[in-house]
Amino acid sequence: MSDPVTLLFPNLLQPAAGSYAPVGVKFWENEETLLAGMKEFADGWFERRRIGTHAALETARRMGEAATPLDSIREYQDWFGGAMARLVEDGIAFQQQVMKANARLAPHLPGADKAAAPPQEEDERLSA
């Protein structure tokens, strides 16, 4: 005797193997793009840390050779300004990577076409 579900939906449990292939390929393509972006961000981060370490070393040397406490404080302030600039660069680089990932993934999300519409158009559609 046959199962009633199998009689009504004969192909329910036997999907075509090829139907999952495009989703799998797209997933791994996105993964590859994400990893490339992460490497780009990490390489930039390490370069900024290398520059920061060198700047801190030079600052420590100049502070040790400073003639007055005011000169020492000035050296520290110069180093601190560079450290903050590198921190801002970290934030900008991270934001750029998030935006790249979002641009790649967002068009494929459900409802992405509604989110792309300007608010005025959405209000006009609702009032019509």
Question: In total, how many beta strands?
Answer: 0
Uncertain segments: none
What is the arithmetic mean of pLDDT?
Answer: 82
Largest sheet: none
- Please state the CA-atom Rg, rounded to the nearest Å: 28 Å
| Element string (H = helix, E = strand) | HHHHH
| Helix content, binned percent | over 70%
Output the number of helix runs: 5
Characterize the quaternary organization of these chains: single chain
What structural class do you assign from the helix and strand content? mainly alpha
In whole angstroms, how far apart are the ends? 55 Å
Principal-axis shape: rod-shaped
What fraction strand?
A: under 5%
Descriptive overview:
With 128 residues, the chain is mostly helical. The protein has a domain at 40-101. The chain has helices at residues 4-8, 21-65, 69-105, 112-116, 119-127. Helix 2 runs antiparallel to helix 3. It is rod-shaped and about 95 Å long. It starts with a helix and ends with a helix. The model has no long low-confidence stretch (mean pLDDT 82).
Chart the SSEs and their pairings:
Elements lengths: L3 H5 L12 H45 L3 H37 L6 H5 L2 H9 L1
Helix pairs in contact: 2-3
Provide a short characterization of the protein structure.
This protein has 128 residues and is mostly helical. The protein contains 5 helices and no strands.
Pick out its properties.
128 residues; mainly alpha; 5 helices; 79% helix
